[in-house]
Amino acid sequence: MFALGIDSGTQGTKVLVVEFKTGKVHGRGFAPHAMIQGLPWDEKEQDPNAWLEALEKALSIALKAASIDPGRIVAAGVSGQQHGFVPLDADGRVIRPAKLWSDTSTVEEALEIAAKLGGREAVIRKLGLDLAVGYTASKILWLKKHEPGRYERLSTVLLPHNYINYRLTGRLHMEHGDASGTGLIDIRRRAWQDDVIRAIDPGLAEKLPALHSPAESAGVIQEKFGARFGLKNVLVSGGGGDNMMAAIGTGNVRPGVCMLSLGTSGTCSTFSAEPVVDPAGEIAAFCDGTGGWLPLLCTLNMTGPTEALKNLFRFDNATLELLAGQAPAGSRGLVFLPFLDGERVPALPEASGTLFGLNRTNFEAPALARAVMEGTILNIGYGFSRMQTLGLDPAEIRATGGGSRNGLWLRIAADVFRKPVATLREHEAAAFGAALQAIWTYHREQGRDQAIAELCDDLVKVEKPLIEPRPENFGVYEELQERYRSLWTTLKPEFGKHKKFQERL
Known about the structure:
Nucleotidyltransferase, domain 5, 18% strand, 6-stranded mixed sheet, 7-stranded mixed sheet, alpha/beta
């Protein structure tokens, strides 16, 4: 038997055909997504229907590569980019393009919701996490304020993976994990939070789907869709946000393991059997895709700055790694604040990037390349330290995402975090995790209640040897981490035009 793992991300859709028994990937496909062009710098939008077109293309490629009878596929799981807002009308049609996780145009709306609730501390008391600008809640209020005609048509609020599930199964379904990133639920009770909903619109509650356990299925692929690909009676698991599914795909489903995702965004998360609420609101106490919790740090700038550098100098990935490797740890004193798209942690949605410490010894391509790579890791290192202060200190880091193919980046991470870093046999952790969740759900539907941690132990393969931290670099990065923090806290008052936002920081 086989399962489909579908990951609808920011850059495109990936589909894996995964064997139940071994976890072997028999086929894979990819189709890109385009951003809507011509928007202001802080607005990031995509057409949800383009996700479906990409899914069909990627699925066709994966099935062709797998060379199996599609009738042997019995389950599917969908991972999607978190926090996006997909508004549907009463007929289930998309009202407008989806505002994405990286859209930071809703600062005023996030502040307005927080003010109505009594400020940041009150928000954290009610939700168990802070209301980040990127979360769905502020996007809903943005639609109400800026496009009232479209808001009047709003009948259902979905997230990207929910929308794909809806088009596959015909059913509206929302599970705890991805929903915990809307800023609309109390993550401790796993229930919609009435005060936050009323702060946006008292009528919003009726536009939110019922919440479900991640162990529940979302339905079965509709015959009309399945017939085009030879799929029959394929069970669709609840799915989840890309971070929740990547946690499954890396085996981050029990204490002691930490997932480091080096993708468009940078995330660092670990499993907890209980909610871990950060009183400072920097670590998001999300629910996970298995029934537990996923304390998570998210930064907006990971591969974005390196892609910008590559485009500027026309580097490829190999050249970037080679050049950066020619500079020593610490980039000869050059420090890069990577806030090209603002930032979530630290909370600087209107920040800009900064190169600090340029001199004649480091004004060169190797030091610049390494500084950009180090800056993105130091940004995550700031949040990783915060996780440790909350009692979360995993023994091993498992890296995934496109950046995990860069050995130097992983070595920098090992040195900054002072933890061994592992890579995985399957790099597409979100799509793979979605397939594993689908296998788990299928087994449960068939009466086999296997723990998902056992399933991951069997199917998630860690590559050896691990990348070990180098003590000779600890001092360099400890000093650099402190300089990094000092720089952004010193420059912070210069960022942004919202006085209230600065006071809130």
